[in-house]
Amino acid sequence: MTLSLAAFQSGLGRALMGEDTCPIDPASAGFRFTAEVRRSWCEGRTMIAARTVLTLVPDAERRRFVAEYVDQGGGLAMFLPTENAAFLEFPAPRLPEPSHALSLCRMDQALTRARLASEMLAGSEPRTVRARIERAIRGRIEREAWGCIECSAGAGDDRDCGEPEVRDYIARDVPGGGKPGVRGIVEPGVRGVIDSEAWGCIERAIRGPVERGPHAALVRFHAEPEAVLRALHGAPPPPISEPAYPLLFAPGLPNFYRVATAEEGALWDRLPAEDEPPELVERLLAEGVVAYAD
Amino acid sequence: MPGPLGVGFGCLPALPEALYTADLMDFVEVTPEIFHREAMVRGRVELVPDRTQYAAARRRCGTLPIAVHGVELSIGSAHGMFQPCLTMLDKLQLEWPFLWYSEHLHFQTLLDWNGAEVNCGVPLPLPATREAASLVAGRAAAIQRRYGVPFLLENPAHYLPDLPADPEIGDEFGLLDRVVALSGCGRLLDLHNLYCNAINFNFDPMTALARIPLDQVGEIHIAGGSWCEGFYMDGHDGSVPEPVWDLLEWTLSRAPSITGVVFEVLEEFLPRFGPDGIARELERARAVWRRHHPPREIAV
Questions:
Q1: I need a labelling partner for B284 at 20 to 30 A (CA). Which of A66, A160, A182, B70 fits?
Q2: d(CA B162, CA A34)
Q3: How does pLDDT run across A32-49, given as a tens digit for each residue?
Q4: What's the whole-number mean pLDDT along residues B58-66?
């Protein structure tokens, strides 16, 4: 054999994708059958990977979607979640608006994004001020905060500052009643509480504009989501109504989703925005639903 | 290889868990790719377990021993194997030790014009050449060292005629002979693949079987297939055909190192069988197995 293994494989593989590179007889029944098997595998992978969306698409349309997708080089991903993520980009602009199939497609996309983000981002840390600033600046701020605590605890004349838990701990348990150098002798767990409280003060003080989280989504269903999901298992699809059933998707949510309140839905529509209710913003920041705008 | 175990079956989430505790099988053949997904971790592709599916697979297998049957390594790709499969198995072996590991002798990925790795969408056979044998043998030996358990290579089914071959290798059987001789790995003899190729390329399966050194066979696969456009397909979509049962009888009587026989079926075709249909195939496989490996009497 004069053809190298790499050349043989490249030629054969690309010939199956439609190029004129076949190292064996491309007119042979075996090659043509292999090409058909390949196509049927690609379509099969797509159907399995995108089952949720495709179930509610009419039969003829479903076959057309999948065929077009495979024609454009789809259906090749080795792993179903990867194929699912790739496929979902394809039908979204082609599905009717409004439709349950489109809601499911957006839901699948949102779930995939949130799940992947939770794997890729270290601990799914929300985009807080603390997460965004440089380590050196962060260190300086923490040193300043500890300096304030130590000064006030040591002077003993300003016991109203800080959280009650921290004040009580310093007064009761820290040798010397909180003399300078107190950070080094405070238990690590309590130190964490103090750090977190200090950063909470900073976050609250800044309250800059927030925007939609980069891995978050709000999907509005046109019927109760449970009823739409039941249709995937054979129940009749519910009638299309107003988009009144919002679900939030984000990397910090348990199972990556929950029902959105009316207040959250309204905030989502306003984003980016400033001067929003701080409790609401802090909760959504922690869940990764919103992030501070750069 | 470990000593004889008996009959095995795949870990298929769509089947009732009770099937795995009904004394129908002696081990489970696990394909870990089905409960892993690709993720970018520190800038590299890794296969990370879907913890829910992974826990379900472990629960399903219970205390049954497991063997790993990989499907995505692409051991024969000239540009390189899909390395994340190996790192996935490194972790799996620590958490859920497997008795042996098998892969298909094929390739599925290649480099495109830009040098990027692409999956061609279907597993393809290797040419019977010295270069292919040497490449796969080196990798097989390394894999066997890496995991410290037997590594088996499976003869593939395919439909491509006139594959290139070096005269001293000859054909698909010669290729696997050479790989095994160079690497010291074992064989997973898929009797249905052999049967498919025999039909589609018009050779006698029994004559082909007689060429295979059966003392190197550690595991056997059996399955069903179907006809499509003049080809008999390795579809894993039906009951094991009678000629394949005959090949199994013949092989089991001559292969001294076999650990087990696995009945393969694709999950999407399970409705054709139902749990009872699966049980019938497994019972028949076990009956054949016990004719050649009778249960030992317990001394009193």
A1: B70
A2: 14
A3: 999 999 999 999 988 888
A4: 96
Whether the per-residue pLDDT at B202 is higher than 60: the answer is yes
The pLDDT-based confidence of A289 (bands split at 50, 70, 90) is very high
Helix and strand element counts for chain B (H, E): 8, 14
Alpha-carbon gap, residue B282 to B23, rounded angstroms: 10
Nearest to B281 by CA among B17, B19, B58: B19
B48 inside 8 A of chain A by CB:
yes
Inter-chain residue contact B77 with A9, CB threshold 8 Å? yes
- Would you state the structure tokens that stand for residue B278, as one six-digit string? 């699966």
Chain-centroid distance of CA A117 in Å reads 4
Residues 115-144 of B with CB under 8 A from A: 118-122, 124, 126-127, 129, 131-132, 135
pLDDT the model gives residue A264: 95
pLDDT of residue B195: 98
ipTM value: 0.94
| CA A157 to chain centroid | 47
Longest dimension (CA), chain B: 70
Rounded-to-integer distance, Cα A37 and Cα A246, Å: 42
Distance CA(B55)–CA(A255), nearest Å, equals 16
In 10 A of CB B219, how many CB atoms? 28
Dihedral, CA atoms, B123, B124, B126, B127, nearest 10 degrees? 180
Question: What string of DSSP letters covers A123-191?
Answer: GG----HHHHS-HHHHHHHHHHHHHHHHHHHHH-S-TTSS-HHHHHHHHHHSGGGS-TTHHHHS-HHHH
Task: Tell me the pLDDT tens digit for each residue of B144-171.
Answer: 999 999 999 999 999 999 999 999 999 9
CB of A75 within 8 Å of a chain B CB? The answer is yes
Q: What is the pLDDT of residues A67-97, one digit of tens each?
A: 999 998 888 887 777 777 778 888 888 888 8
A162-206 pLDDT tens trace: 556 666 665 665 555 545 466 666 777 777 777 777 777 776 666
- Judge contact between A70 and A44, C-beta under 8 A: no
C-alpha distance from B108 to closest chain A C-alpha (Å): 8
List Cβ neighbours of B38 (8 Å cut-off, separation of 6 or more). Answer: A77, A78, A79, A81, A82, B45, B46, B47, B48, B84
The reply to whether residue B110 touches residue A9, judged by beta carbons under 8 angstroms, is yes
> What is the per-residue pLDDT across B89-124, written as a single tens digit (0 to 9) for each?
999 999 999 999 999 999 999 988 888 889 999 999
Interval B224-231 mean pLDDT = 97
For residue A124, pLDDT beyond 50: no
> Contact, B31 vs B64, CB < 8 A?
no
Q: Which of B111, B235, B193, B121 is nearest to A38 (CA)?
A: B121
Say how far apart CA B235 and CA B227 lie, in whole Å. 9
Paired tokens of B159: 């439909």
Do B67 and B30 meet the contact criterion of CB atoms below 8 Å apart?
yes
- pTM here? 0.78
Min Cα–Cα distance to chain A from B42, Å: 8
Instruction: Look at strands B44-49 and B36-41 and give their pairing.
Output: antiparallel
Compare CB distances from A10 to B36, B111, B160 and report the shortest one's residue.
B111
Q: Given CB atoms, is A96 within the 8 Å cutoff of chain B?
A: no
